Structure formats: structure tokens, C-alpha cells
Amino acid sequence: MSYATTTDLLTRTGADTIAQLVDRIMPRVVTGQMLLDVAANTNLGAYSADQLARAAVATTAAQRALKDATDTIDGYVGTRYTLPLSPQPALLNRIACDMARFILQGDQVPEAVQKKQDAAMKLLADVAAGRLSLGAEAQTGAQPVTTEAPMLVSGERVWQRNQSTGFL
Fold first, then answer.
1. Residues 112-163: pLDDT tens digits?
2. How far apart are CA 21 and CA 9, in angstroms?
3. How many CB atoms lie within 10 A of CB 79?
4. SS3 of the chain
5. Distance between CA atoms of residues 99 and 119, nearest Å
6. Among 123, 141, 121, 122, which residue's Cα sits nearest to residue 81?
7. How far out from the chain centre does Cα 90 lie?
8. CA separation (Å) from 83 to 6, 33, 69, 100, 124?
């Protein structure tokens, strides 16, 4: 189950930005509007077969990046919560889109995109460590997953009446 759809990625990040990242063949044929139309499966008659083929390849690249982001999120969230989460917290949609854009950037990552990726990873680490709650347990009744049983530990007695030597 993905935390974000291709349409979420296109609208959140900007369809033209994603089009530039997923269509690296020159001359670029895929536009932001074309990706939006293909993702929504509308207005496909306005494009040639070659354009639709290139848009399908571009859409597959975006979906693969979203899948990679979802797998990473599940790795962190799954240590704390029972998956799949239902309903999904909106925070995970934003994180999935930010991570997918980072993945699509390849090895040319702008500073702003890197900062969003770092922030997303910190949030996920906080969720896994229990420092941040997704609020899922309040909405669904799902309890955080734990691998440890509750345990009460105490030391030896510090004081005993028979050792008070007349004090009491």
C-alpha cells in the first residue's frame, strides 16, 4: 500500500518539475500536463502514441520512486505500528512525496530537496524510536508494536525491621 499516488506527487511537487526529472531523453517530450493527464487517465486522445509511450515510462519511474519511499517508510513505521495503517496519516503522504522527489533527483540533489529528505528521515527515526506519534492509535485503536514485555525491576531491601538494632 502506497502512502502517495502519482497524482499526489505531481500536485505536491509540481508536475513540470517531476516531468523534467523523469524524462531525461532529449528532446524532452513529456510535460507536466501530460503526466497529470496520464495519471488521471483523461484527455489521452490529445497525445500521439510516441508521447503516450514516453509518458508511460516517465509515470513508471515516478511510481517506482514512490514505491521505494513507501518501503523506506514501512521500515521505520513498521517497528512501532501494525501495518498497513488505516486511515493513513497525512504526514506520511508528504514524507513519501518528498522522498520520491529526492530519489528522482539522482545524484544532482538541490540543497532544498536534501533538507526535506533529511527532515523526513529524522521524523521517521523519531517515529521508530517512539519520540513521535503518528496519531494512528487514536484514530484506529491500533496499538504501537513492541517486542518487549513490561517488566518491573527492584533492588534488594534497603531496610528491615529486624536489622534496625533498636531504632524502632
1. 999 999 999 999 999 999 898 887 564 554 555 566 666 666 667 776 777 7
2. 12
3. 16
4. CCCCCHHHHHHHHCHHHHHHHHCCCCCCCCCHHHHHHHHHCCCHHHCCHHHHHHHHHHHHHHHHHHHHHHHHHHHHHCCCCCCCCCCCCHHHHHHHHHHHHHHHHCCCCCHHHHHHHHHHHHHHHHHHHCCCCCCHHHHHCCCCCCCCCCCCCCCCCCCCHHHCCCCC
5. 10
6. 141
7. 10
8. 21, 34, 15, 20, 15
Which of 92, 107, 102 shows the shortest CA–CA distance to 139?
92
Residue 55 identity (one-letter amino acid): A
Please report, for residues 56, 60, 66, the alpha-carbon distance to residue 53 in angstroms, rounded to integers and kept in the order given: 5, 11, 20
Give the pLDDT confidence of 48-105 residue by residue, as tens digits: 999 999 999 999 999 999 999 999 999 999 988 888 888 888 999 999 999 999 999 9
Position 133 scores a pLDDT of 86
